[in-house]
Amino acid sequence: MLGRLVPIIGTLLMSRATRKVAGRHAGILALGFGAFELWRNYQRTKAPTGQPQAPVQPQRRRKRWL
Length: 66
What we know:
Layout: H1 2-12, H2 16-24, H3 26-45
């Protein structure tokens, strides 16, 4: 994702007006990007909502017949 954003951001920063805007709002942009990364990581680790999974029970040892 970041690899696709770098050329776009670089292109936007070429104009003088865009550089001024980015300089003024650099903290807000960094905060927003950080929040986006946290949200994306949360979505990746979230359990699938399709079907609830049954808890896995440990296997019992079988008793031997003597």
